From TrEMBL:
GO terms for molecular function: methyltransferase activity; nucleoside triphosphate diphosphatase activity. Residues 4-208 form the Tetrapyrrole methylase domain. Residues 389-419 form a coiled coil. One of its GO terms (biological process) is dATP catabolic process. Keywords: Coiled coil, Methyltransferase, Transferase. Residues 257-330 form the NTP pyrophosphohydrolase MazG-like domain. This is Tetrapyrrole methylase family protein / MazG family protein. Signal peptide: none annotated. The lineage of its organism: Bacteria, Bacillati, Bacillota, Bacilli, Bacillales. It comes from Thermoflavimicrobium dichotomicum. Transmembrane segments: none annotated. It holds the Pfam family TP_methylase. SUPFAM superfamilies: all-alpha NTP pyrophosphatases (SSF101386), Tetrapyrrole methylase (SSF53790).
């Protein structure tokens, strides 16, 4: 006869919640094993003289629940070596929030043991009745010990189990506050369906860990939201907003946009974010990042409408790339420094591009980059294969050479060519000094704007137009603006 573990549930309350089949199984069993004695039905089991043993001692052996549950599962499987059928009883329903049963289902086939799951009244049954939950409206149950904000969908009825003390409740509160307003009403429920023990507390979220009402039978119920503003933090809500804007019932401007028409806005928003970073304006950074994300969402929605891809495929590809290009984090590779990480990243990119038809390493540079960045990237690519100056002084000499050639240039065409050469070589100077030319030039434009505005302000104070001020006076004011910046 095949070895078997029969798993039954003790229900949500006392013996009145025990299924008839479970009572019959107990009456003919030589021994039943209880995960814990802490259950209202155990008093009746003892009165009936049904022999039982518990695994309560295992809880004292380990500091974490996973180790406890692993030990219980192993002990049950070992018991099958001594008896063909082992009866194991757990609180509630065997398939609701019962980790030991999940482990038995995983390990049983490896040990040649059949895991026979029987019924048992779940505390979900009474929770649905007491709290007025219709699960067809959308329901999720989560473990309070491993709750993460990204798992929570506030549109659903949510029941959080394993809230056995105030420490767990405090962690849950902090997690929920990332999703719900601090004063959102929640329910703390204990021993639902157990006469004389049942309690239900309604309170605002911020008071969750201020009450002393937590036991092994405590759960938290969070009703679905009715205020749509609570959903504003959710990515899926943003996806719906963008799709609606592009729909026939949406916005005429958004509907007529294409990938090509949106490109100027993507560039503009990226530069506005750069400006916010340089200004160390965190509020502006948050706002501008939202504008950049808007452009991403619009492009993804347009692609979805064209049947090419959608935002979820964009995210899928990005996740895959991040994992693939970080083998030192998600794999077996090692990288101790940022430079090693960069080298690994470039090597992985190179392998990914193997098989692509390219006649030059310069083909890897995006044609959509501004020309300043294209020049910068060309120098970087060439340097990686050894086409580079040995030291900074050499490239500075090249700058002087290009300046001399510019001075000699006579025709417009020659002057244009030499100015182009000069600008091009300056991007290599930036690379040699480990300075990004785009950022350096942006800072220079900001500096010029500040000083020029100072000239305009000074001219206004004199009641004259800027063009009426002698150059000597403008130079003096310019120096004043420089000195003011140094004094700040």
């Amino acid at each position: 006869m095949k070895k078997k573990i029969v798993v039954v549930g003790l229900g949500f309350g006392d013996e009145t919640a025990l299924p008839i089949g479970t009572v019959a199984l107990f009456s003919r069993s030589e021994m039943i094993w209880l995960r814990t004695e802490k259950h209202p039905a155990v008093h009746w089991i003892r009165e009936k003289g049904i022999p039982f043993q518990t695994f309560d001692e295992v809880y004292e052996m380990f500091s974490d629940f996973e180790s406890v549950y692993q030990e219980i599962a192993q002990r049950l499987l070992q018991l099958t070596e001594m008896q063909e059928i082992v009866v194991y009883a757990v609180p509630g329903h065997p398939m609701v929030a019962e980790r030991t049963v999940q482990l038995l289902r995983q390990l049983g086939p490896q040990y040649g043991v059949e895991i026979d799951i029987r019924g048992g009244g779940s505390f979900l049954d009474i929770a649905f009745a007491r709290l007025g939950i219709d699960p067809i409206e959308g329901f999720m149950m989560v473990d309070g010990n491993s709750l993460r904000p990204e798992e929570i969908n506030p549109r659903l009825h949510i029941l959080i189990g394993q809230v056995y003390d105030r420490i767990v409740a405090s962690d849950i509160k902090l997690t929920l506050m990332e999703v719900y307003p601090d004063d959102y009403e929640i329910h703390v429920v204990t021993a639902l369906g157990i006469e004389g023990m049942e309690t239900v507390h309604r309170l605002p979220l911020y008071e969750l860990d201020r009450i002393d009402a937590f036991t092994d039978l405590t759960s938290i119920y969070i009703p679905p939201v009715s205020d749509e503003q609570i959903l504003y933090r959710r990515f899926d809500y943003l996806t719906q907003i963008i799709a609606h804007l592009r729909s026939p019932e949406g916005c005429p401007w958004d509907r007529k946009q294409t990938h090509q028409s949106l490109l100027p806005y993507l560039i503009e928003e990226a530069y506005e974010f750069i400006e916010a970073v340089h200004n160390e304006d965190v509020d502006a950074m948050m706002d501008e990042l939202g504008d950049v994300l808007l452009q991403v969402m619009l492009h993804a929605q347009i692609a979805k409408e064209e049947g090419v891809f959608d935002i979820h495929e964009v995210i899928q590809g990005l996740n895959a790339k991040m994992i693939r290009r970080h083998p030192h984090v998600f794999g077996e590779e090692h990288a101790e420094t940022a430079e090693e990480v960069k080298q690994n990243w470039e090597e992985i990119k190179r392998k990914e591009r193997q098989g692509e038809e390219t006649s030059s390493i310069l083909d890897e540079i995006s044609k959509g980059l501004p020309v300043l960045l294209q020049a910068f990237e060309q120098h970087k690519k060439a340097a990686k294969v050894g086409f580079d100056w040995d030291k900074k002084e050499d490239v500075l000499l090249k700058v002087e050479e290009e300046l001399a050639e510019l001075r000699k240039a006579e025709t417009k065409e020659e002057q244009e060519e030499e100015i182009g050469d000069l600008l091009f070589i300056l991007t290599s100077v930036a690379r040699m000094y480990e300075v990004h030319p785009e950022i350096a030039l942006w800072k220079a434009t900001q500096k010029f704007a500040r000083r020029f505005r100072y000239l305009e302000d000074q001219a206004r104070k004199t009641g004259r137009k800027l063009q009426e001020i002698p150059m000597e006076q403008l130079d003096e004011w310019w120096e004043e603006s420089k000195q003011q910046e140094k004094g700040e």
